[in-house]
Amino acid sequence: MQRRKVTLKLYPNAAQAARLEAWTRLHCELYNAALEERIDAWHKARKSISYYEQQNALPQIKAARPEFVELGSHALQQTLRRLDLAFQSFFRRVKAGQTPGFPRFKAAKRFSGFTYPDPAGWKLMQHGGRGATLRIGSGDTALSVRARGLHRFGDQAKPNDITLTRRNDQWFVSVTLRVPESACARQRAADMRRGVDFGINDWATFDDGRTIDNPRWLREELPRLAALQRQRGRKKKGSLRFKRLGRRIARLHDRIGNLRRDFVHRETTKLVRQCAVLATEQLAPKTMSRSARGKGEAPGRRVRQKAGLNREILSAGFGMAHPMLAYKAEEAGTRLHLSHTRQIKPSQRCSACWELAPKTLAQRMHVCPHCGHVMQRDQNSALVVLIDAHNTQDTPGTGVAARPKPRPRQRGKSKSVTRETPTTTAQAV
Ligand SMILES: [Zn+2]
To answer: Which of 133, 279, 328, 350 could form a disulfide linkage to 385, CB 3.0–4.6 angstroms apart?
Structure first.
């Protein structure tokens, strides 16, 4: 069994939305009350209260406040656990010598939602391609909300726990599915071997020179975002109009994020479907997007260009592509090879003679001073990582496993250079 997370959008009617709001407020109230109890006990008696003491007080709370009953005991426990986690990480960081903020009281408006930690107290009914219904509670008081969203795992996926969240006045349910391995597998359509360089001018460049353009929509949305932010800057802070614009800005941010995630999902899926071997380089978006302003006596050049570039790098979802490729490659049985950037230096190395040919970011062509090889810069990098993937097929080399931390099941096994899982193309279903 594997775990997969999917998010469905909920479409509550006005009465249902009001109930979800009310439940969120109650969860928030519980959270704040539990926090206050812990603070009081410490101030008055230097006593620290554990999660279990608070959990054991829940029946009394429900007796005194019957409106808590319909929230479900496990969901209430989960909210107390959330507070406990906040305290745990607070103390962990104090111990590590950091200065974390003390767990805070939360405003009901900002309280993000609540969780049902096991398959009890709710039911998710999928209606084929026509969406789903989420039913919470039982009997006459049950809440049945329409939901929309599809996943590719079919009937074999069993929902295990759900988290209801509210964002920008919209409700979502995030569902953890337990999926059999066979339903996770992706079919591969081809067995290509490709090196790919994720870049700035093009989102991706392949070793054969093919490219995938950066999405243009961002260029269209960003000026709109900037205009809204300017408009808000002219309003009085905290005023009605200020808040109204704030909501519009938040929604636009959301939209850009959604489009970007969608783009990266589509492209990474295509990549693993086509490739038996996919090579790219380890990426550190932070260093790539580091300010061009430079330090002190060594001011950077092309500051303005780099600022626009930063935005574009971040917009293209660099950070998103790698983790997506990692799990999708595993599902498709694609060997994903990540070249060690500092050892291999794919952008500086010549794909023909393997010598280093240093160049600046502005130089778009690779011209080798050693062998005279000429190639477009990104294509050369893609070819270098592909060659590196071939070289390190079975000798421990410079590649590293795609997933930063091995999952528990795989721990203890020898660390392989690249991640390879049995191919699934053969099992045509
Ligand atoms: Zn060369």
So the answer is: 279
In the 8-state DSSP scheme, what is residue 349? Answer: B
Q: How far is the CA of 367 from the centre of ligand 1 (A)?
A: 8
The residue type at 185: A
Q: Determine the distance separating the centroid of ligand 1 and the alpha carbon of 363, expressed in angstroms.
A: 16
CA of 371 to the centre of ligand 1 (A): 4
| pLDDT interval class at 153 (50, 70, 90) | confident
Which residues lie across from 367 on neighbouring strands? 374
Taking the centre of ligand 1 as the mean of its atom positions, its distance from the CA of residue 346, in whole angstroms, is: 13
> Does the pLDDT of residue 216 top 90, yes or no?
no
Instruction: Measure 309 CA to ligand 1 centroid, in angstroms.
Output: 29
pLDDT at 202 exceeding the cut of 50: yes
> Could you give the percent of the chain with pLDDT greater than 70?
82
pLDDT digits (tens, 9 = 90+) for 54-110: 999 999 999 999 999 999 999 999 999 999 999 999 999 999 999 999 999 999 988
**pLDDT tens profile 318-329:** 678 888 998 899
pLDDT for residue 219 = 67
Gap from CA of 383 to ligand 1 centroid (Å): 13
CA of 181 to the centre of ligand 1 (A): 45
Q: List Cβ neighbours of 5 (8 Å cut-off, separation of 6 or more).
A: 174, 175, 176, 177
Calculate how far, in angstroms, residue 357's C-alpha sits from the geometric centre of ligand 1: 7
Contact criterion met (CB below 8 Å) for 117 and 175: no
- CA 350 to ligand 1 centroid distance, Å: 5
Ligand 1 center to 368 CA (angstroms):
4
Tell me: the pLDDT tens digits for 85-100? 999 999 999 999 999 9
Q: In sequence order, what are the residues at sequence separation of 6 or more whose Cβ sits closer than 8 angstroms to the Cβ of residue 113?
A: 24, 27, 163, 164, 165, 166
Q: Which residues surround ligand 1, an ion (CB under 5 A)?
A: 350, 352-353, 368, 370-371, 373
Give whole-number Cα distances, 138 to 70, 135, 144, 174, 269, in Å: 9, 8, 10, 20, 39
